[in-house]
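Q: What would this chain look like folded?
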Amino acid sequence: MKQGSLVCVGTGMTLGAHISPRSRSYIEQADVVFVLVADGITEQWIEGMNADVRSLQPFYCEGQSRMITYRQMVATMLEQVRAGKKVVGAFYGHPGVFAWVPHNAIATAREEGYGAHMEPGISAEDCLIADLGIDPGTYGCQHYEASQLMFYKRIIDPSAYLILWQVGVAGDRSLAKFTTGPAYRELLVSLLTEYYPAEHEVILYEAVCLPIQTPRIERLALHALPEASMDLKATLVIPPCRKMEPNDAVLAKLKLLSEQE
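A: My prediction, written as structure tokens:
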């Protein structure tokens, strides 16, 4: 194993409340910490844990594909790993959830013979479950990135919860926008109304970053989605609109099995 290492940790969603002791220890003991979080206050909080904290936020540029930005971030982190340093990437929420940079930085480091791993954090999904009182085990839960749902033929089960991530940029093929307009979301609604009534109540959700904030829990009809205000942080939650249908064929076979025991 070469000298130099990389650990990508999750800072959680809410400042100071969600980071694990293990992740905090990695930040404190690192030679270099790269940080990518949702607000400047959290960034300053992490700066208090280590003398060399560097923000990845300046790599974002309006009009530039996020894939270019992400590759620049990975290259910057790996430069320090190759220099033999203990590098930590501190990322908003969970570093493995909707996070291209940590996954690819770790994969590259490992391919080059460096020690690299990920430490989990509390994600937006975890906060969503708590704030909305949803149990994924009750009806089941499907998760899709909103644009991916539009670009590909996916199967939607309207008897389960449907959670669409990054709905604020739904339909963006350039990866260069921070939001898309009503016309894009009208296409998304057109797709969803193949499965749900236009009047079906949906929820726009955003987790809190600071303890003094309250989560966004905005309930509206599906057809009203195009005009709603949202950005990259917005998540769309669609509750079930149908009951689960029993699978009589499998239930009959299970009954036979139980009778034979």
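The longest strand covers residues 5-10.
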